[in-house]
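worker-03 picked up job from queue 'complexes'. Input manifest follows; three sequence lines, order preserved.
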Amino acid sequence: MPELPEVEVVRRGLERWVAGRTVDDVEVLHPRAVRRHGGGAADLVARLRGRTAAVPVRRGKYLWVPLRQSGAASGVAEPDRRSGEEAADDALLVHLGMSGQLLVQPADATDERHLRVRLRFTDGGRELRFVDQRTFGGVAVDELGAGGVPLSVAHIAPDPFDPAFDDAAFARRLRARRTGLKRALLDQTLVSGIGNIYADEALWRARLHYARATEGVTRAEAVRVLDAARAVMTDALAQGGTSFDSLYVNVNGESGYFERSLAVYGREGQECDRCGTPIRRESFMNRSSYLCPACQKRPRHPRW
DNA sequence: CGGAGCTCCTGGGGGC
DNA sequence: TGCCCCCAGGAGCTCC
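worker-03 finished. Artifact:
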């Protein structure tokens, strides 16, 4: 499940392998993968052809590649055209959903079973493939608005690594909510980038129960769980970051972090690393929550 | 309008 | 062996 660290690994892979290249042709193999694009598949293709990829940007789990007009003389390379200096009007927006991957593959590599969109480049090098088994993810070309953020991403809050992220404002907004703590952490309009796995991990590190009522969470606790989220995602990125060093832009949730370093997620019945109490799995919001019942005390008045 | 629940999707795995 | 159901969950949408 790609959350912020996995998406950042993908962003870095795109920066290395795709930035500066010009799109030659695009193939949409599944309409659902482009459902977020207003004009449909044909329009998406038309808006991508001949455009040059700038340095990709990420906010939370969203990723976009600003698109520049390529040089007037077709086929002529544009040396030293530093990205970011020219404002782009639109961008290729990508969300990986549950199972999305971006792969950089040789043109003659066999198509993946769940290949949804293929981008070929004018340099004839490796192509970019969007592969997504469950099609919760998708790609679109979207207009860039204020601050260079795609219009359809404007409602998404900055993530905890964004210099613009305001810890005090986060605590204030969290405490103004009338809901459960984990539900709030998963709300991408409050703080972005955190999904089910890192929410559970952050709550465990902060020793807070997922059903704590947000209005009862102290400012210190709010910042504690936020810092815990930063820490666990930083660790994940440090470990997952090795996989994009190859030609394969590893993108799915398999940074390797899952198996190695998770304290609670997927560890039902195993001992808590801190106190030895068996980790418990509970059903919550129609999905799973993992926690240490000793370290993370259930509140007297839980809120879901 | 905030909050909560529904829904989309597909393959793997368990039960019978 | 085969079939059916459950499970994974991000986020837009709808309803109250």
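worker-03 released lock.
Residues 72-77, 241-256 of chain A have pLDDT under 50 and may be disordered.
The longest helix of chain A spans residues 219-240.
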